[in-house]
Amino acid sequence: MASAPTLAPSNKETTNYARLCRLLVDGGTKALRYTFDKFHSPANLFNVLKAGSAEHSTLQSIRKRKIINATQWGKLYPSPPSSVTSKDFDITLLLVLLRNICCLAAPTTG
């Protein structure tokens, strides 16, 4: 009978690493959301994303290239559509939106 894999005991280094990762994701998401909301105010986000807009066409193109997944698409176009909010966007989606519909350039060094 096979035994369950033994987990490495947590030590101060791994705990600090986990805290740093969490800080980067949480803090990074907050910073990206703040920046995104400066480009597209939460009150106007529904109008920016509505069908027929240039942003909608761009997002459809990105979706076809599978850069945006179905879950993220559902966050952009919830039911009812007027309930869209950047508070529901994850860090990856925020970065894609900033680069593609906010004209935020990618870093020159990669």
UniProtKB/TrEMBL annotation:
Residue stretches making up the DZIP3-like HEPN domain: 43-110
A Pfam family hit: HEPN_DZIP3
Organism: Porites evermanni
Protein name (record): DZIP3-like HEPN domain-containing protein
